[in-house]
Design goal:
two-stranded antiparallel sheet, single chain, alpha+beta
Length: about 100
């Protein structure tokens, strides 16, 4: 791997960590306020988390009512609306960026 490739890979990893830190663990993007994904769980402190996070894109999941749902990258949802999206740290950051804040 070239030095340039190594630098780019490190930069991507840093950006991924930065992005992941924006999550407020509210669960809204996973349907917490409507028909949640069967993989959505909550810690003792109330923070939402995905039971299969590292492999969430590898398979289709179901909601608690049995409806099929495919986990999509949050960037695909940022410019849409869903119940509870006002709590989303990703969406708030995207709104700030688009409004020039």
């Amino acid at each position: 791997m070239s030095e340039r490739s190594s630098h780019y890979r490190r930069w991507l990893e840093e950006k991924e960590q930065e992005w992941e830190q924006r999550c407020r663990c509210c669960g809204a993007c996973c349907g917490a306020l409507e028909d949640p994904c069967e993989q959505l769980a909550f810690s003792e402190t109330g923070a939402a988390f995905c039971r299969v996070y590292s492999r969430r894109f590898d398979e289709e999941h179901k909601t608690l009512s049995g409806q099929p749902v495919t986990c999509v990258p949050v960037r695909s949802k940022l410019h849409t609306s869903w119940p509870g999206d006002e709590m989303c740290g990703y969406k708030r950051r995207a709104d700030q960026c688009s409004s020039g804040i």
